[in-house]
Amino acid sequence: MKPALSCRNDGCAWSEEEAAAGLLRESLPPDAVDGIWRDVRDAAADVASREPLLRQRLHRLVLDRSSLADAIGAILSDRLASADMSESSLYGLMNEILGEDDAILLDIVTDMHALKNRDPACMNHLHGLLNMKGFHALQTYRIAHALWKRERRELAFVLSNKSSVVFCVDIHPAARIGCGVMLDHGSGIVIGETAVVDDNVSILQNVTLGGTGKEHGDRHPKVRCGVMLGAGAKILGNIEIGAMSKVAAGSVVLEAVPPHCTVAGVPAKIVRWHQRSNMPALDMDQSVKN
Question: Strands 269-273 and 261-264: what pairing?
Answer without folding.
Answer: antiparallel
